Amino acid sequence: MIDPRLLPGLLAARDAAPGCSAKDLVRRSGKVRLYRYRPLAQDTKGPPLLIVYALVNRPYMMDLEENRSLIRELLKRGVDVYLVDWGYPDGADRATSLADYVDGELAACVEHVLAAHRIDDLNLLGVCQGGVLSLCYTALHPQRVRNLVTMVTPVDFHTPRDLLSKWARKIDVAAFVGRGNVAGDALNALFLALMPFRLAQQKYVDLWLGDADPARLESFMRVERWIFDSPDQAGAAFREFVTWCYQENRLIRGTLEIGDRRVDLKKIVCPVLNIVAARDHIVPREASLALRDAVGSNDYRLEEFPLGHIGLYVSARARREVPAAIADWLAARA
Amino acid sequence: MNHDWWSAFSPFTAWAQAAAPFAAPGSPLPGAAPWASLATAAERFAAAFQRYAADASRDPAGAASALSEFLRDQSLDLLRTSLSGGTVGAGGEAAAFAIPALGLTREHQERAQRAAAAANRMAEAQRRLAWLWTDALRDAATQFVAALASASTPSAGPAAAPDARELYQRWVDTAEKAYAQVAHGEAFAAALGEFVNASARLRDEWQDMVEHWAKSIDLPTRSELDTLGERLRAVEARLRDLHAPAAKRAPAKPGNTASRARRGKRRSPQ
Prior knowledge:
The structure holds 2 protein chains of 2 kinds. Helices cover 43% and strands 15% of the residues of chain A. Chain A is built from 15 helices and 10 strands. Chain A has an 8-stranded mixed sheet with strand order 1-2-4-3-5-6-9-10, with helices on both faces. Chain A has a two-stranded antiparallel ribbon with strand order 7-8. Chain B has a domain at 56-243. The radius of gyration of chain B is 30 Å and the shape is elongated. The longest helix of chain B has 47 residues, at 106-152.
């Protein structure tokens, strides 16, 4: 029987705000913001960690709520955390390119952190597409990155189970982007189409047939908001990313160029921690596993979790294991 | 065949009944209207299984076939709904444009013809996608009903009464597998690509039309904004170049890269 408290509970939960850890804005450039999180531990260990999220979703998934916050767990373990927030591009940003993101904004954020701490290198953590940006940055500026962590990051875009890639290769990306940006709604529809029964139907059935625990409903609403809070994509960067990565697989082939400079992953010689979700339906594990042979580092570690793309941030198991894996790995290389 | 467990569907029915008043127009819960279709779907889902339960012992093949058809139909409705925003007219409208463009308005006629052709391509691609969807749904329904029937045969012993949600979970698993089989295929990717490409073409033609009329009444156009944007970017780049030497950080100490490389040589235990 449906719990009569469910509908009122959902109404009460609909404005549940994401984000639980205190942070300060330390740099602003156009729509891009750099935040530093306030420490939760007595001492910080090693250089700061700069988190680079994807362009296609909002980064508050990393700090969704107290029980589901990778950032909060890292802070508790003494990691000094910075986060790049790419913002919501609009029509004026349509010409923003991958080079603008990697060599412009990301490089400026790194320089800001280095200058603030008077250090020569920092730790970088790239998530999903943000992992690709981080790989590009590290390959182009190896002296600036002491340790690199990649999470659910595609490296080989042509693996057999990569459904997004199969579809992307049939699309005329230049025509699709046209003269503007790419609507976040279009990407939402694409992601739902990867598993339509589960993502567009079963999820809501489970919601309705579950209990009316306010915490559960608030969590649901926060994740729901995050899933559909998709920024429009700057046209030029989107065109470059899909064409060069999904269609031409340039990253793994060593032919990707950012601002006229070739991205050679072999130039990444710093320690690398690659975190993979074994049940990822967006970035198949094989797409991430390719990193091992692609980088030049001899200190490569793989951490694989039997979770999905989103479960890696919000599941109970993720909360227990992922932050510890990152913090311990970084501490050993501080 | 033990049909007692079909009563397990009561949660679905209850859910539908509970959600319906909130989903109706004038609902006390603003924004609840989208639940109406889901509530109706749940009610139909439960009813179909009840029909199957009632008919299966008398006419197993007929009952299985009816349930398969229902599952295909119901799931196809989801596709129709999701694509309804992109549905375009086809056939008749395009035929009216299939003549050479002549005279004073030639350029406008051609633009309209191109838009109509793109709309037709979209409609055709949408039909192909719908066809492939029904393939997936047919396979899913067939597999699901076969598994259901085999679990209920006398040789398999008395069937334990599955929970309604467990049954629904099984249906979703089966449907996702069948869908993945189709979605990974060349034909699906080609149809989806054609749909996206044609819709992009249609949007371009619309943009051209709007731009033309905007110019005619002296409104700023997207092209003009883009030109200004390009000029601004060039100015910004020039400014960055001018300021770069002063703002540039001192390069990292030469020894740093080497020491990092040494650290990188250590292979950590896996």
